[in-house]
Amino acid sequence: MERPNYITPQGYHALKAEYDALFAGERPRLVETIAWAAGNGDRSENGDYIYGRKRLREIDRRLGWLSRRMKAAKVVDPCRQPNRERVFFGATVTIADEDDRERTLTIVGDDEADAGTGRVGWNAPLARALRGAGVGDLRVVRLPGGDREYEVMAITYPAG
């Protein structure tokens, strides 16, 4: 049995928007181009046909992946979190490492993670270590470069 795909409402809408854009936009235009290219004769040296078929396979693969992810999605709205004293899905957490360097991150679904913007996937080692922590708690994170200890400085959730 596959784990549920926890995701925020915004993340789910982004997956759906990408699916709709590919399925209703790019794919039909590509099928039309392939049909036109196929009617031009020799397909073995027809770049439009060869590239179109390759791109169509990529789109179909992506559509299948998006469909499976949306089907497994469990939309969790962080605004509705009843216990705002602990770190759960959707929390924005400020942590400090051993050198007192602070960093703020938001725990989101794995499909919407982006470390560059401080969005950490729910199943990432750092997020797993922080789950259930309260302000002032120390948590050790096992990373490839060695263990790091973080202190939870603040926990916030979006306003509902």
From TrEMBL:
Keyword Transcription regulation: yes
Name of the protein in its database record: Transcription elongation factor GreB
Keyword tags: DNA-binding, Elongation factor, Protein biosynthesis, Transcription, Transcription regulation
Span of domain Transcription elongation factor GreA/GreB N-terminal: 5-75
Pfam families recorded: GreA_GreB, GreA_GreB_N
Entries under InterPro entries matching the protein: GreA/GreB_C_sf, Tscrpt_elong_fac_GreA/B, Tscrpt_elong_fac_GreA/B_C, Tscrpt_elong_fac_GreA/B_fam, Tscrpt_elong_fac_GreA/B_N, Tscrpt_elong_fac_GreA/B_N_sf, Tscrpt_elong_fac_GreB
Family per record: Belongs to the GreA/GreB family. GreB subfamily.
Superkingdom to which the source organism belongs: Bacteria
Domain Transcription elongation factor GreA/GreB C-terminal intervals: 85-157
Organism: Stakelama saccharophila
PANTHER family, per database record: TRANSCRIPTION ELONGATION FACTOR GREA (PTHR30437), TRANSCRIPTION ELONGATION FACTOR GREB (PTHR30437:SF6)
Gene Ontology MF: a single term: translation elongation factor activity
Record's function text: Necessary for efficient RNA polymerase transcription elongation past template-encoded arresting sites. The arresting sites in DNA have the property of trapping a certain fraction of elongating RNA polymerases that pass through, resulting in locked ternary complexes. Cleavage of the nascent transcript by cleavage factors such as GreA or GreB allows the resumption of elongation from the new 3'terminus. GreB releases sequences of up to 9 nucleotides in length.
Lineage, broadest ranks: Bacteria, Pseudomonadati, Pseudomonadota, Alphaproteobacteria, Sphingomonadales
